Amino acid sequence: MSDVPSLLYTDVEDDLRAAVRSMLESHSPWARVLERTDGDVAGDRKLWTLLTDDLGLAGLALGEDVGGAGASWREVAVVLEELGRAVCDVPYLTSVVTATALAEAVGARELLAELATGAVAAVAVPFTQPLDHPVSDPPRFAAGRIRGRVPAVAGAAEADVLLVPVAGAVVRVAAADARIEPVPSLDMTRRVADIDFGAEGGAAATVLAERDAVPAALARAAAVSAALLASEQLGLAQRCLEMTVEYVGQRRQFGRLIGSYQALKHRLADLWTAIAQARAVARYAAACAAVDDKDLPVAASLAQAVCSVVAQQAAEECVQLHGGIGFTWEHPAHLYLKRARADALAHGTAGWHRRRVGALVDLPPVAD
Amino acid sequence: MTITSAGRVDRTAVLPLEPTEEERVLRSTVSDIVGRFGHSYYMERSRSGEPMRELWELLGKSGFLGLNIPEEYGGGGAGLTELAIVLEELSARGCPELAMVLSQGIAGSILPLHGSAEQKARYLPGIASGAEKFVFALTEPDAGSNSHNVTTSAQLDGDEWVIRGTKYYISGVDHCDHFLLVARTGTNEATGRGRLTLFIVDDPNIAGLERQPIPTALQAPERQFTLFFDGVRLPADAVVGEVGHGLRPLFDGLNPERVLSAVICTGVARYALDRAVAYTTQRQVWGVPIAAHQGVQHPLAEAAIELEAARGMVWRAAALFDAGRPAGEEANMAKFLASRAGLKALDTAIQMHGGNGLADEYGLADLWGIVRLQQIAPVSTQMVLNHIAQHTLGLPRSY
């Protein structure tokens, strides 16, 4: 833990945030996000190109040797805060974080170079499933072919490449070789899809890692994903608080600004303190991921245990304190609420992570 | 006032939505009596460890202590509901009386059902008038929530029982005239559980019995004790009910105990909210009474809502018990809700008093112990949840 640097935002991080925010304000206003949720296309391709080509955010955490920017997961976390703030529909978490972390952990340099230029990858594991938690019926791999199905994978419909954990290996499959069927979900700003590699002939697959290397790689990618998801949740929560503070400072009832009532201002003060705690654990998790600190597994699960709850609380308060308007389609609150709800399930629930923290800090397991 | 002479068996499980005229009169009469003493009386006795004797005697003389005792033994022949009303009014005026839970509540419920004719004639009139007080010795260092683990033993020697062992957290022994004792008279070979027997210890100063006070944060006239039994000899007729079946009479005392513990909490909650309303409407900061702020109003309103919800369950449990219906679930729920509502109301009232919340003059913080206690005794909040999970919901036993 002593190796973890200051958790305060650096000047570089502030500049990065400003650049991303400015881009998102111009190209992903919430009205556009809302409009896209009615359409058929998963992922805002135009926005993705701007983020990856213009701002170079795809290879942020990757080394310059594979064409990356040579920054770290900390900077990626700042980008995720901004993406969460704007509930953007881009496969950043799924590709730049989860798939990249797994590609890095298995040493797939060729793939990393593709990812650094903005190619989109997805790990074929259900979005609600922690990567290192075994799935009941994983796809089967033999003789260069993969067969079977994986349900409810986030970022799959947008992906060029699929990384698939199978028994004793992680394999690479071209997305074009699989049948990817988008399914309706609560959060239409991050769609999920069922992947079918076929039962008979299956799809062509190449091995990226085998045997002993697999569990550690999945654990690493799982921890980085959980750690970084917390920053998206933090950004979302922060935005919900800001919108709500702004609203109660304008809306009048009974001849007064409603923000002057203690019942509301105290509630928002409580939310502020909850978000301050969420920021602390999210930043710590990102910093642990950045320097690969040995505390990362605890930090990641702690971040999920806290941020999943706080993001939902913030979104719920946003709906409630906006009164009737917060309940309408014409207000973004519902987008945040749905994202917060889906994020709370992603990569393991808060309860699952609490249990894992218990195991990591040597608390006796629950008797079965 | 007149109290109906209808026995418990004649009562139906009906709960009026509004208090009857009789209940109104009972409440106001008791409240007036307690009001003559006030919370400062309770505080003074908590410090000295002397019982609230004058108040107790006045209530006894007026017939308010024995409301649940059959008339033939000098009681009011009413029920737990009426007894609980008295204790709630005591508590609502800042004088919660734990002795009522033990003496009238437990002993006064068990003896009419399980006592011999001689025991009833000997002890019930004293319980009814308040002239003789019972306490209750069940828990041990290794037998708290799990009564089956009682190790204090009773062995027959000729026609006398010889008691050896230790009892722990026994309340008010220094104020009592007699106490009920649970001891092991054998072991069920099949289950390993103790065969328990209930005894009356007529003389708390009997030879071979030592007591040692346990200092606690509870500020009440009753002190807590460890009891050491070293060859205490009890006559054969000290047994209540059957030898080896002491749990049966014991269980008949549990529901009244829960209901009466609950009304201590609801009564203190009413007291605390009364004090908070009086204080916050009078105390001015920044030119307005602090009660004008939502930050003050809403927590008090929330406490009031939770209090009324808890009271609804309390009176329902008492009515079911008085009608002779199963009341375990409701009595447990009542204790659970009331102990939370009491703690919340008191804590909120303390907070609304600012610095004065801890001052003796305002008479709030000294009640924390007796309300907080009800999260642990007579049954812990967690054991209530276990009970409801298992018996109400049919979930597997978890402990």
TrEMBL record, chain A:
GO MF annotation list: flavin adenine dinucleotide binding; short-chain fatty acyl-CoA dehydrogenase activity
Pfam families registered for this protein in UniProt: Acyl-CoA_dh_1 (PF00441), Acyl-CoA_dh_N (PF02771)
Entry EC no(s): 1.3.8.1, 1.3.99.-
Cross-referenced InterPro entries: AcylCo_DH-like_C, AcylCo_DH/oxidase_C, AcylCoA_DH/ox_N, AcylCoA_DH/ox_N_sf, AcylCoA_DH/oxidase_NM_dom_sf
Cofactor(s) needed: FAD
Superkingdom of this protein's organism: Bacteria
Keywords recorded for this protein, A-Z: FAD, Flavoprotein, Oxidoreductase
Keyword check for Oxidoreductase: yes
Ranges where the Acyl-CoA dehydrogenase/oxidase N-terminal domain occurs: 11-101
SUPFAM superfamilies to which the protein is assigned, alphabetical: Acyl-CoA dehydrogenase C-terminal domain-like (SSF47203), Acyl-CoA dehydrogenase NM domain-like (SSF56645)
Domain Acyl-CoA dehydrogenase/oxidase C-terminal: 223-358
Transmembrane as UniProt keyword: no
Family: Belongs to the acyl-CoA dehydrogenase family.
Protein name: Acyl-CoA dehydrogenase FadE18_1
Gene: fadE18
From TrEMBL, chain B:
Pfam families documented for this protein: Acyl-CoA_dh_1, Acyl-CoA_dh_M, Acyl-CoA_dh_N
CDD domains: ACAD (cd00567)
Domain Acyl-CoA oxidase/dehydrogenase middle, chain residue ranges per copy: 136-218
Keyword Cell membrane appears in the UniProt entry: no
Domain of life: Bacteria
Enzyme class, UniProt record, top EC level: oxidoreductase
Domain (Acyl-CoA dehydrogenase/oxidase N-terminal) ranges: 20-130
Cofactors, names only: FAD
Assigned keywords, A-Z: FAD, Flavoprotein, Oxidoreductase
SUPFAM superfamilies, per database record: Acyl-CoA dehydrogenase C-terminal domain-like (SSF47203), Acyl-CoA dehydrogenase NM domain-like (SSF56645)
Gene Ontology MF terms: acyl-CoA dehydrogenase activity; flavin adenine dinucleotide binding
UniProt-listed InterPro entries: Acyl-CoA_dehydrogenase, Acyl-CoA_Oxase/DH_mid-dom, Acyl-CoA_Oxase/DH_mid-dom_sf, AcylCo_DH-like_C, AcylCo_DH/oxidase_C, AcylCoA_DH/ox_N, AcylCoA_DH/ox_N_sf, AcylCoA_DH/oxidase_NM_dom_sf
Gene Ontology biological-process annotations: fatty acid beta-oxidation using acyl-CoA dehydrogenase
Similarity comment text for this entry: Belongs to the acyl-CoA dehydrogenase family.
Span of the signal peptide: none
Family matches, as PANTHER family: DEHYDROGENASE, PUTATIVE (AFU_ORTHOLOGUE AFUA_7G06510)-RELATED, MEDIUM-CHAIN SPECIFIC ACYL-COA DEHYDROGENASE, MITOCHONDRIAL-RELATED
UniProt domain Acyl-CoA dehydrogenase/oxidase C-terminal: residue ranges: 244-391
GO cellular component, one term: cytoplasm
This protein's name: Acyl-CoA dehydrogenase fadE12
EC number(s) reported in the record: 1.3.99.-
